[in-house]
Structure formats: C-alpha cells, structure tokens
Amino acid sequence: MTQTAEKTDLAQIGVVGLAVMGSNLARNFARNGNTVAVYNRSPEKTRALISEHGDEGAFIPSETVEDFVASLERPRKAIIMVQAGAATDAVINQLTEAMDEGDIIIDGGNALFTDTIRREKEVAAKGRHFVGAGISGGEEGALNGPSIMPGGPAESWETLGPILESIAAEVDGTPCVTHIGPDGAGHFVKMVHNGIEYADMQVIGEAYQLLRYGAGMEPAEIAEVFREWNAGDLDSYLIEITAEVLAQTDPDTGAPLVDVIVDAAGQKGTGRWTAINGLDLGVPITGIAESVFARALSSATAQRAAAQEGQLPSGTITELNVDKAEFVEDVRRALYAAKLIAYSQGFDEIKAGSDEFGWNVDPRDLATIWRGGCIIRAKFLDRIREAYDNDADLPALILDPYFKGELENLIDPWRRVVVAATQLGLPVPVFASSLSYYDSLRAERLPAALIQGQRDFFGAHTFKRVDREGTFHIEWSGDRSLTEM
C-alpha cells in the first residue's frame, strides 16, 4: 500500500529530478526513516515513483516548485538530481527564488567544480546555502548506500550531516560521507575520483587484452583469473564486476558477451575534466590522462577502420614465449602496480587542487569514505588511509614505506609485461605511461636539462645551474658567453 505522507507533515529532505539516480536516492532517504519531498518537471515521473515505490517510506509528492518548497521543514534541504549544465542552473534559480534565508540547495550531479564555485557565490549572495555534493556508486549505490562527497559551507554540513549519514554506505560502522571542504571541493574530489576510475578501468582492460590475445585465454577462463585476483591484493569492486562481465554470455548468440559489444568506450566528461585540471595545476596524472585518450581513440572508429584497411605496418610481432601461469602472475602484479600509480596520481591532484583553492582537503577522509559505496572502492584504501595517518605530508602515496615495499615486488613483473606487450603489438597505454612516470620520479637526471637548453636557444627563456644560484642565458647568436640575468 502506498504511504504518501499527509500534506500537514513536513519533509526532512527533498529531491528534484526523478530519473533513475534521483528516484533511487529518494527511495534510499525514505527507506532510512526520512520523510522525502519529491518533484520532477514532468509530473508523470513523480506519480510513477509514488505508484511503484510509495510503500517504501513516507513521500510528499508535488507538481510545482512552490508546493515542493512548502513541503520541506526549515532549514529546507533540497537535492538536485538533474542534467548538469543549464538544467541545473534553471532548477537552482527556481529554488533560490522559492526558498528563504538559510535554506540549503544541494547539487548531487557531476558538475564541473568551477561551476559549483560560481553557483555557491551566487546563491550565498541571496542568503541561501549551496552545496556541491559528489555522489558515487551508480544506480545501485544511490539506492543502497553511496559514497558522498559534499562541499559547501561548514554550517550546511552541520545540518546535512546526519541525514546524509543515514543513507551512505558504511564500512566498519563508519558512514562513507564527510564534509570535504568549502565551495567546489566536493565536486572537485568527485571529479578526481572519476579520473582514477577511468585509469582503473582502462588498466583492467589492458590486463584482459594481454591475457586474451597474448596468452590466448578465453573470456570465461579470464573471468576465473579475475575472481582469484579479487581474493587478494586486488580486491575491489571493479575487479569483481570484471569477472562477472567476462563470464557473461550473450543471450542471443551464446557467444562471450565481451565479443559482441562494440569496442568503443563512452565518457561523460569527468575523466576529461580531471586530465584538463591536472594540466592546469601542473600535476603529472599520466595514467589518468592516457585512460581518457584511450577511450577517445577507441571511439575514433572511422580512423581505426581506415588504419586497418590501410594495413599499417606492424613490424615484427613475436609470440609469447614464457610459461602461461608465470605470465598471468606477472600481469596481476603489473595491474596492482599501475592501479597504485593511478591512486597516487589522483591524490597528488587533489592535494594540488586543495592548495590552489584553499580547501584543506584531508586525504585520510577520502581513503575512508571511498572504502564503500563508490566505484573505486578497494581493499588497499585501508592501507592508503594508514599511509596518510603515518605522514599527513607524504610527498607521494607511493613513497609510503608500505607501498614502496609492495612496488619492490611488483616492478620487475611490471617491466616484463610492458616489454611483452610491445613485442606482441598490444597497446598498453596506462601500463606503459605509469611505468614511465614511476621511472621519471626515480631518475637522477631527466632530459628536461636539454629542453631548457633548447628553450634558451630559440627563445632566450634562460636556465638555472646545478652548481650555483641564479638564472642564466647563453648568447647563442653571439659569442656564446654566459650571462647572469
């Protein structure tokens, strides 16, 4: 029986936008004892939610923004789950006009953090609070417990905290939600979370490609390998679902499902934003960036077809000449190493963004709330939290003693896998770029010295010396004397 709350009751939280994510989030709030106001621009979706799921808790449906706002207890709290961009701005403007001073508007979509900074200023100028909240976990997480990354004013968190904790995933009794920092901090962190997710998914794909076309294994056999891996250091949500996808057969043909899916990966922008902001901040998030480029290349289907028709030369391709079991183990260790690099680079970008915008984001909080609900949840997040507990100013995650010890056992298999992939002619952009990043960090000298010499030659950009302080220039077009600038 549908249990719609009486209009004389007031809702603790409201949800605007009742597509799958918004509907599931509203149901999650209701299931956990909250009275939930619901509104959608198309009233049919509101009615469908009440008709199909109204017995899951107390809902107050409305067909106008004004009725929706009137059904919320003060300070009013409304979470927006509509398409990012102009649609979000339109709803924010409607709610700002209908609400009163001190009320809270929450954007739960994947907004660009700079938009969130702008919106927070605009809404604050009118006496309302604005919170950009990253929500991870997909449709299932929204319904059963996501990881939530709210930014915005600390005062808003005091009000929102308990209600968000009531619906978040829990690990070891700790809700996977915390206040990230001011204005755009929550959406920035969610953006980087998604960037790590891109790299993680791509390097898992590269591992599959190596096992399939290097070791000659079939999808069902590889699925069992991933299930075994998920019982160890690689224990994570993405490894778990990879095994499920590889084990699945196509209901129509009986062929492995992975073989009937077009190999062109989609993207909605958060990975690209992560790469762009990494460039803006000067942070080398090479594995994340390569994963974005890999999706773009996979979708360049006309170009790929032309390259195949034109039979681009491959050079000498060799067959795998090592024991299959040993190769599988090498791929496992290389996958673990590349995943560690993706997380390390993501935390580097978050630190740089926090420093740039004055957010004071605590990496220990992220390692805690990413352990459950979110797409990149993984066993080694506990180790990441311990790393930052031991040294809050850790220069890079992989410099933590535990992870350095892990990498000592991973580096040789990682190198062997990248070499094998090259010999096999199989693309491994994240495996390879992550290894180059690792070697760049540990190199005593980089070719940047030559680059600085080139820059000084053609543009008089100057250079610094290793043997004394100062900035210098060579008179390249003259007598090539040294000038201190």
TrEMBL record:
Catalyzes the oxidative decarboxylation of 6-phosphogluconate to ribulose 5-phosphate and CO(2), with concomitant reduction of NADP to NADPH. Homodimer. Pathway: Carbohydrate degradation; pentose phosphate pathway; D-ribulose 5-phosphate from D-glucose 6-phosphate (oxidative stage): step 3/3. The gene is gndA. The keyword Oxidoreductase applies. Residues 186-477 form the 6-phosphogluconate dehydrogenase C-terminal domain. NADP(+) binds at G17, L18, A19, V20, M21, G22, N40, R41, S42, V82, Q83, A84, N110. This is 6-phosphogluconate dehydrogenase, decarboxylating. Keywords: Gluconate utilization, NADP, Oxidoreductase, Pentose shunt. InterPro entries: 6-PGluconate_DH-like_C_sf, 6PGD_dom2, 6PGDH_C, 6PGDH_Gnd/GntZ, 6PGDH_NADP-bd, 6PGdom_BS, NAD(P)-bd_dom_sf, Pgluconate_DH. It comes from Corynebacterium aurimucosum. Belongs to the 6-phosphogluconate dehydrogenase family. Gene3D superfamilies: 6-Phosphogluconate Dehydrogenase, domain 3 (1.20.5.320), N-(1-d-carboxylethyl)-l-norvaline Dehydrogenase, domain 2 (1.10.1040.10), NAD(P)-binding Rossmann-like Domain (3.40.50.720). It catalyses: 6-phospho-D-gluconate + NADP(+) = D-ribulose 5-phosphate + CO2 + NADPH. One of its GO terms (molecular function) is NADP binding. The lineage of its organism: Bacteria, Bacillati, Actinomycetota, Actinomycetes, Mycobacteriales.
